[in-house]
Amino acid sequence: MSSQAGAAKALYAIVITTLLLFWLNQDSISLYCQQKYHQSCELPVLGQSPAWRLGGNLTHALGDARDSFVDSLEKRNEPVLVAKVEASDTVELPAPTRVVPVHLGKPPATAQVAVSKPVVVQVAAPAAPVAAPVTQPAAQVAQAPLQAGTVVSLAAGDEVFLVGDSLMQGVAPHLANSLRKRYQIKSVNLSKQSTGLAYPGFFNWPQTVAKTLESEPNIRLMVIFLGPNDPWDMPQGKGKPFLRFKSPEWEVTYRQRIDSILDQARAHNVQVIWVGPPNMQKPKLSTAMAYLSGLYEQQTGLYQQHYVSANPALGYNDDSFSATLQNSQGKRIKTRVDDGIHFTTTGQKLISERILSMIAFPGLTVTGH
Amino acid sequence: MALCHNRARFTPRVSRGEASYFCCHVMDYVVSFLSIEFGLCFTLFFIVYWSLCWSVRLQNVLLLAASYALVASFSFNSLYILLGYSALVYLLGLVGERYPGRRFSYLLVLLLVLGCFYLFKYQEFFVGGVQGALASAGLDVSLPVLEVLVPIGLSFYAFHSVSYLVSINRREMPSASPFDLALYLAFFPSLIAGPVNRASHMLAQIRTSGIREVLEPQRALGLIALAVVKLFFCSAWLASEWVDPVFETPGSYSPEQILLSVYGYSFLIYFNFSGYTNLVTGIALLLGFRLPENFNAPYAAHNLKEFWGRWHISLSLFIRDYVYIPLGGNRQGVWRGNLNMLLAMLVSGLWHGASINFIIWGALHGIGLALYKASTYILPQPMRWPGAGLAARLLTFHYVAFAWIFFRSASLDEAVDMLAGIGGLSLDGLFSSTGLLLLVSVLYVAVYPQLLVLLRQFFAATTRLPWQLYPIPLGLFVSLVIFASQSGVPGFIYASF
């Protein structure tokens, strides 16, 4: 009958189009699948057949052709920048087991003992509670005439680099606006939803940080705020099994990724404020955040950088969650949106202010606002 | 869980502020409709649905089940609310049929719709406003706020129910069976972000006496491909390159860049919303349903009145028929007519989102419409002097773009920052690379009607390709678009936070 014939024609078109799309975009789709379902997504038999792989390889080759075309064009247009482009393209990330060489690029940190290999192998570290406000390490007090409570300082012409996921996307505009309006400090906001450190195939923060610090020499402070996309098993390479979340191997790998960001900061003499994700509504996610926060805090400590938990800013004193905060007039104001993860504008501003309170601006006059 | 990657890429992922609730949400859902998972599920659904083509009734059962499953996949609470709402609408339909056109029949409809909107969408906004006003008068009052989530699709199925109940009260149609009504309210392609359906048009398609057929299959698939281009390529690129960074921190950009971001947002919101409409229209055609037209080249409009006849058409007609005309329309004199228009546009603004910015946006359009009307008394239409048409289109586009600033900004302060930024425009600044892009944008609007003719011819030509071959260029074209997009598939088929 004509109705079914029409439907069959349409189905034919849908299936052929879908197959073509999957064939050409197989690598992107498998990355997407990895990131979303936290397991390897190879097609059982078809996945290895040369005819199937050809589609993926075609797209790869086209991508390479596009990249080299764009590079070549840029080089011809801006001969002065050649060196820079090349440099940023060949940034080497620390190899997983390399011992980080100790060169204290950051003068004020001299009081501390030289830091060696920052990878602390803790076998299944217990979820460290991170509710208490961070106390300042003694080494930093001697740094400069900083105001009370501040741990880093910025001067005129310095820029701030904002790194993170959608939590940061919420906080970053407030931070950037306040920095610019009050102190005329520029910021570079590259925060991107769905990102973290567990799925570099999807988005590679260590590499992005390396490139950005290379190309933006005025950056003197990096603020990092991420985590909720990471508490999952993570891939360790093609064909290998996924690392189990919280297993010792997972933790070592994750700490190395934190370190590779901190290494870049050290190499470019950039101060770091690492913001620990706050408690979440779902207990499982919340516990995972406390665990990740422990890792961030320990690694930043080893590099004499600065860690601050978002918890105190939202009024959380322990591992409990609340979508509201009691303000000074006794009224409850909403700080979290209904997903139990993200912040309301109020929540974003509270966290932004907490971060700002850690920054000293010697010699800069406050204007407006 | 798809989260809003910022306030308003005309919406996607959890909003950073509550302001652009509507916007945020639309994109959230756009993303889920364009996900790989949805595509695969839809293909399976398509097979089962058409294997039942001998029984429209069974097809309807399947459609209703799929619609409820989709709502439940967002949250079970949303589903319970939709079920409860459908039951209430059914009862009110019976009341309306028994006492058609009576004052209390209409009153009950108004109570249902306003009650739901207030409870689920506007509580915080109104309570906040009233408390603020009382506080400034020295009264510290704490009004109750029930904490409820906005149920998915409420804005649209509430409007669908109004069309249904009013038609019954006007004796244009009898009340529908509970099952047909439930499907009319829950029909998944138009549940999440429209278009706004009319009961007479949709119920007739649900209760069709004949056998359903896939409608215009090639055009349907072409519309879906067009949606991919508009959503992934055009609006995603505009959002990240021209719009989002500037609207977030306007102070860090030059006046020219701020103006460019406003142009960019005007294009973006069109690509985004009309792309979404193309997508659901294509999906509905594949299921044998025709949805009302929603966009018709809005930036080719010569005045605001024409703009609203081309932008979100199904909503404009709804507001006209169910708000403006019941208020009295233009039957009670010029002043009252303009006031009614302003009120209708304010309702439209508030419907888009509960914040002062949306109210300002609505008011700007209301005032703009009144000004246009006043101008027609002075300048006889149509104007015949050379260039008049172009000037009128550019003026209309710029006024609409100006209003979008309020629509997109998260708060009034940010909108003011944007305007202050644009205020610093200088002739020197225009002679720059950004100035060139501004020129390109204006030229684009200028040649838009001619461009449109070409694009439409091209689109029509592709649908004439033989059906056996059609999928190949279609698949290659979509792959090419994905390839040309910034970050490939994972970049936009977002996953989590």
From TrEMBL, chain A:
The lineage of its organism: Bacteria, Pseudomonadati, Pseudomonadota, Gammaproteobacteria, Pseudomonadales. It comes from the Bacteria. Keywords: Membrane, Transmembrane, Transmembrane helix. Pfam families: DUF459 (PF04311). Gene3D superfamilies: SGNH hydrolase. GO terms for molecular function: hydrolase activity, acting on ester bonds. This is Uncharacterized protein. The chain crosses the membrane at residues 7-24.
UniProtKB/TrEMBL annotation, chain B:
It comes from the Bacteria. The keyword Transcription regulation does not apply. Pfam families: MBOAT. Keywords: Acyltransferase, Alginate biosynthesis, Cell inner membrane, Cell membrane, Membrane, Transferase, Transmembrane, Transmembrane helix. It is found in: Cell inner membrane. Its main location: membrane. It is an enzyme of class 2 (transferase). GO terms for biological process: alginic acid biosynthetic process. This is Probable alginate O-acetylase. It comes from Pseudomonas wadenswilerensis. The lineage of its organism: Bacteria, Pseudomonadati, Pseudomonadota, Gammaproteobacteria, Pseudomonadales.
